[in-house]
From TrEMBL:
Keywords: Repressor, Transcription, Transcription regulation. Coiled coil: none annotated. SUPFAM superfamilies: NagB/RpiA/CoA transferase-like (SSF100950), Winged helix' DNA-binding domain (SSF46785). Residues 1-30 form the HTH deoR-type domain. GO terms for molecular function: DNA-binding transcription factor activity. This is DeoR/GlpR family transcriptional regulator of sugar metabolism. Pfam families: DeoRC (PF00455), HTH_DeoR (PF08220). It comes from the Bacteria.
Length: 224
């Protein structure tokens, strides 16, 4: 483009400060729009999130101990669970717990800690200490960025630590990946792809976008 490396670096720094991209070693990646506030994220790809929530809900079996992450995509899972489901659901999100009020056969365990208002979840040492006592069957994880090079990322350091602890507390981790999160990146890595079992995403996503994850041995579920 006929510009110097210094000019490119300066432009990348300025665009990163404006939230237009995420700088990584050797270049930059699209910044995830999923780092917007909770109300703003509820307006992003809402139909896709409903489909993902419906598909994820079908994966929950009676009698299981399930961890549900916070966030606008995970919020769709309890909305699609059968009202007669008998299971235990653990969450660090008050909004998820409230969605389960009418599921009278679901035991709800709410993890406490410092409220991280951006995602409306509990974070901090108290939350991680509680999570260490849990052995769940499956964890449905929300992230803000999924990219073959940078892995699974989110926008807050403490929230990344809590998500990591939740993943380690479950036999399986399934990532909820609405379209705006794919091929995007955020500053903090949660876990490598080797530590997850599956990804649930939208049916409309091109197969070529999902192929790198399938090559890693990850089961990709395309929600309809």
């Amino acid at each position: 483009m006929g510009v110097s490396e210094d000019t490119i670096r300066r432009d990348l720094r300025e665009m990163a400060q404006q939230g237009l991209l995420q700088r990584v070693h050797g270049g930059a990646l699209p910044a995830s729009p999923a780092v917007a506030d909770f109300a703003g994220r509820e307006r992003i790809a809402s139909d896709g999130k409903v489909a993902i929530g419906r598909a994820a809900a079908k994966m929950i079996q009676p009698g299981q101990v399930v961890i549900l992450d916070g966030g606008t995509t995970a919020r769709q899972i309890p909305r699609h669970l059968p009202l007669d489901l008998k299971a235990t659901i653990i969450t660090h999100s008050p909004t998820i717990a409230l969605e389960l009020i009418h599921h009278l056969n679901v035991e709800v365990i709410l993890i406490g800690g410092r409220l991280f208002r951006h995602s409306v979840v509990a974070v901090g040492a108290a939350a991680i200490e509680t999570i260490a006592q849990i052995h769940a069957d499956i964890y449905f994880m929300g992230v803000t960025g999924i990219h073959p090079k940078t892995g699974l990322t989110t926008g807050d350091y403490e929230e990344a630590a809590v998500k990591r602890a939740l993943s380690h507390a479950a036999a399986e981790t399934i990532v909820l990946a609405s379209s705006e999160k794919l091929n995007a990146a955020s500053p903090y890595v949660v876990v490598p792809f080797t530590e997850i079992s599956g990804i649930v995403t939208e049916r409309s996503i091109e197969k070529s976008v999902l192929r790198p994850y399938e090559k890693l041995g990850i089961t990709v579920t395309r929600a309809s």
